Task: structure prediction
Amino acid sequence: MNQAYDAVAGVDRTFLIIFVTAAALLVMVTITMIFFVVRYDRRRNPVPSDIDGNLWAEIAWTVIPTLIVLALFHYGWTSYQGLRTVPPDAMEVSVTARMWSWSFSYDGGRHSDVLVVPVGRAVKLNITSKDVIHGVFVPAFRIKVDAVPGMTTHAWFRAEKPGEYDLFCSVYCGLKHADMHTTVRAVSEEEFKKWLAEAPAQGVHPGKALLERYGCLGCHTLDGSESVGPTLKGIAGTKVVLVTPKGVESTVTVDAAYLKEAIAGKKEATMKGFDPLMPSFGGQIPEADIDQMVDYLLKGDQAAPPDGAAIAESQGCTGCHSTDGSVIVGPSFKGLMGSVAHVAVDGAERDEVVNRAYVLDVLSHPEKHRVKGFDPIMPAYPQLTEQEKQALLNYLESLANAPEHGGPEQGGHEHQTHEGHK
Ligand code: HEC
Ligand code: HEC
Ligand SMILES: [Cu+2]
Result:
C-alpha cells in the first residue's frame, strides 16, 4: 500500500463491510424463513409440493455468495496488506517484552518504558520477547502482533492526533499479565526531538555516538570483527605493528596519544596488514570530539557506569520485586541483601545467606535457588554484562538495611507474606 495508507480506516471499513453484509444476510434469511413458514403451513399447503430443480435459483445461490465472499476477501486482504506493508520512511523502534513489562529502544540509544512517538510519522515496531510469548496490542491503531522469544516480528502505525493510547499485552503470560500494559504517547515532532535528546541513553558514551556520526563505523567495527580497518573494540593497551611507507616496522602500544594521532592523521605509518585508507580527520572535526572518541576508545562502555536502579527498572526486576517490603511476585528487594533465603530445590531445602555471590548465581542459575513459598519463575539474565550485574548488586545493597525487615538475626527476610501470596 502507499505511504498514506490509513490502517485505522482500512480495518474499520473492512469490519463495517463484513458486519453490514452479515446483518443484511441475517435479515434476508429470517424474512424468507418466516415467509415460507406462513405461506406453506399445513392449512395453506396441505400436500407438500415436490419442487425438482430450478436452474436460475441454483445459479443465483452459487454466484451471489461467491461474489460476496470474494468482495469480503478483497477488503480483508487490502487492509491486511496495509497493516503489513511498512512505509519506507517509518521510524524504527525496538520493542522488548518480558514478564511483565515493556521496553522500547530508539536509534541513538534512548530507552523508555513508554512508547513516545511523533504525531503524523509512521513508526515501525520491531518486536521480540525475552521469555514467553507476549503480544503488542494497541487498539487505537488496530494493531495486535505477537512478541515471540528468539524471533523479531513487526507492526507499524501512525498516530494522527497527539494524545495517550493504551498498549496491552494480548497473550496470557502468567500472574501479572493483566498489569502488562503501558502507554503510547504521541507528541509533536519538536517535543519528540526534545524527549529523544533529553536523557541520553544510560551507559552510552557520547564518543560512541560520534564514531557513528563521523562515519568511522563504515570502516571500523565495535564488535571485534575486521572490516576495511581494524576493529576498534578493546584496542586500548594492545600492541600494534606499524609500517612506514618505506617499509620500516615498529611496534607501538595503543594509548591516548597514539589514538589522537591516528584520528588526526598525524601518523605516517599505517597498521600492518591494512591499506592506508584511514582518512585524516585533523582540522576537519572539533578537537573536543576527537577527545571524546579517544576517551570512548580507551574506556569502552564502562565509561558511563550503569545505574543499578535504572537497570532493575529496565530489566523488569521491579515488575516482580518491590523495593518497599511488599511482595509482588518475588521477595521484596528491601532488606534482601544480608538476609537468609529458604531455598527449596527438587524437594531438598536449605538456607542460604543472600550476599553478592548468591545474587550473582541467582541471576545466571535461578533454577538452583528457588525460594520457598514463591512460584519458581525467577528468569535467568545471561544478557546482563558484568558491570550491569555489579551495579544491580550495589543497588540491592543500598536497599539492604531497611529497618523493619531483614537482618539474619531476625531469621532473615522470612518472606513473611508467602502464605498469603498463594
Ligand atoms: C575509509 C575507511 C576509514 C574510515 C572512514 C575511518 N577509518 Fe580508521 N582506519 C582505517 C584503516 C584502513 C586503518 C588501518 C590503516 C592505518 O593505520 O592507517 C585505520 C586505522 C585507525 C586507527 C588505528 C587503529 C589501531 O588499532 O591502531 C584508529 C584509532 C582509527 N582508524 C580510528 C578511526 C576513527 C575514530 C574514525 C572516524 C573519525 C575512522 N578511523 C574512520 C580506515 C578508516
Ligand atoms: C517474572 C518475575 C521476576 C523477574 C522479572 C525477576 N524476578 Fe527475581 N525472583 C522472582 C521470584 C518469583 C523469585 C522467588 C522464586 C524463585 O527463586 O524463582 C525471585 C528470586 C530472586 C532472588 C532471590 C531472592 C531470595 O530471597 O533469595 C533474587 C536475588 C532476585 N530474584 C533478583 C532479581 C533481579 C536482580 C532481577 C532483575 C535482573 C529479577 N530478580 C527479576 C521473580 C522475578
Ligand atoms: Cu505478556
Residues 40 and 48 are 8 Å apart (CA to CA).
